[in-house]
Amino acid sequence: MESIDWIVLYTTLLFIVVYGTWKTKKNTTVKDYILGNQEAKWWTVGLSVMATQASAITFLSTPGQAFHDGMGFVQFYFGLPLAMIVICMVFIPVYHRLKVYTAYEFLEQRFDLKTRSLTAILFLVQRGLAAGITIYAPSIILSAVLGWDLKTLNIMIGSLVIVYTVIGGTKAVNVTQKQQMFVIMSGMFVAFFLILDYLPNDLTFGKAMKVAGANGKLNILDFSMDTQSRYTFWSGITGGFFLMLSYFGTDQSQVQRYLSGSSVRESQLGLIFNGLLKVPMQFFILLVGVMVFVFYQYHSSPLNFNPAATEAVLNSSYSDEYKQLEEEHQLLESRKKMAQEHYSGVLNVKDYQLTMAAKRKIQAINKQERENRGKARKLIEKADASIETNDKDYVFIHFILNNLPRGFIGLLLAVILSAAMSSTASELNALGTITTIDLYKRSHKTEKEDGHYLSASKWFTLLWGVIAILFANFGSLVDNLIQLVNIIGSVFYGNVLGIFLLAFFFRFVRGNAVFWSAVLTQSIILFIYYRFIYVEEQIGYLWLNFIGCVLVIGIAMFLEMLRRSMQMSRNR
């Protein structure tokens, strides 16, 4: 990185922190701090909701996901627009009518205190873990690629977020997320057009898409009923729908964004805005990853994109074997480049037989390359079991640092850190709110002054910020980061969503049945995850959202009918 990159990076980050702090420093009440005094317009709500979900993991992992596996990951978001409609029709009117600070206040009014507390604790566990990951994700990758100290990066990112989130509360999160989304999308568009500019002169965007298609990267829709496949149309429209319904309808980090809307209509328009733009945005980010794949069809790429993994294996007894694989990889890359150039030329001729023959040749070479990369990962694992062998999260950052012009590197790093800050700020804001309103305030038998709870919210937000930084320092990278966050969510969200659906639609079910059903369901889901996903991977993790939701509803209804049956027997 040159001086201009550092200037761009630091200027962007400092502007966001200073602006957010200055703009929102005059919070005098809990309502100001937690709900931003409910002044947000629909575009602020929509951008804030989008920025909360679009963490650094999105911009690091998603292009790498597309590079390795193609565009199929977009199916994960197919349930989102449907979920937005349900939330706008059911959740938002109820929350605004009851004038709640948190989603879980509603559960006490509908059921009882223990159900509210259990649901709040489930949220704190899963979102507390996610907050650490959203800090850890960019830190570990920037640490590996730039040689920066990992713990220093964790503390730097966490501290920047803590400053304006503790001082400004929800309003600071909403205000800064508008700036962050502008930085993020500007950076991604810059990266996209630079990739296109770096492709061979005769390779138009249309031809580049055909190259990607020839390598199976444009297979967007998978209608198979294979439950082991992580991303299919059916898992997206069902499991994805339940996950999005849970996330946007019951997760306080999102609920707090639209509770800050100035009216029901503003909140609804903000969510519809998010629903309409989210799928195209994810499609575009995946497309950036596909274009990075096309770029590396004509330019050299490392055998493994994680530099720490390469260094570890080259300093081990497996160094000679790895160097031999690197030589084979370079040979394959030369053959691949020639094959791609031949394929591009054949496309101009428009001869079907020649096109299919050239396509099969490319596919055969890329199959060999994938096998080579697999062998490399096994050698890395033998050399150092603690090193992450899966390099999906390193693909995009490798491209940025090795190919973008000076100045743009600083911009793209600012994109990654801005995304980390925006998502983490929402999470800390929500964690502090839930701890204050659902646990701390509710545990006091006598009502205290508003200023007391305002102070408590700030202290709990600070505490969760420190916990997130500590977790980030002791966390471990598992598979693909964007999948890790969604797996953590899927383990808890189905159960929580089921509790809210019972509250909305099953009026005859009481608190005791819901509480014990939720406890039993969470135990079953943890067992299913460990036995059938972590150990054997027999089902896709998205199905946990559907299973958890159906289980908690079914068990609660059974327990309630059992209670009524026993009561009727006693009354006879």
Structure, explained:
The chain has helices at residues 3-23, 30-35, 42-53, 56-69, 80-98, 105-110, 113-146, 150-198, 205-214, 233-237, 239-250, 252-259, 264-298, 307-314, 319-349, 352-383, 395-403, 408-443, 450-474, 481-505, 511-535, 543-571. Helix content is 79%, strand content 0%. It is globular and about 80 Å long. Helix 7 (113-146) packs across helix 8 (150-198) and helix 18 (408-443) crosses helix 19 (450-474). By secondary structure, the protein is an all-alpha fold.
SSE inventory with pairings:
Layout: H1 3-23, H2 30-35, H3 42-53, H4 56-69, H5 80-98, H6 105-110, H7 113-146, H8 150-198, H9 205-214, H10 233-237, H11 239-250, H12 252-259, H13 264-298, H14 307-314, H15 319-349, H16 352-383, H17 395-403, H18 408-443, H19 450-474, H20 481-505, H21 511-535, H22 543-571
Rounded mean pLDDT score: 81
How many E-type strands?
0
Separation, N- and C-terminal Cα atoms = 82 Å
Instruction: Give the structural class.
Output: mainly alpha
Shape: globular
Gyration radius (Cα, Å) is 25 Å
Q: How many H/I helices?
A: 22
> What are the segments in which pLDDT stays under 50 over at least 5 consecutive residues?
476-480
Strand content: under 5%
Sheet with most strands:
none
| N-to-C order of helices and strands | HHHHHHHHHHHHHHHHHHHHHH
| Helix amount | over 70%
Short description:
The chain has 572 residues and is mainly α. Helices cover 79% and strands 0% of the residues.
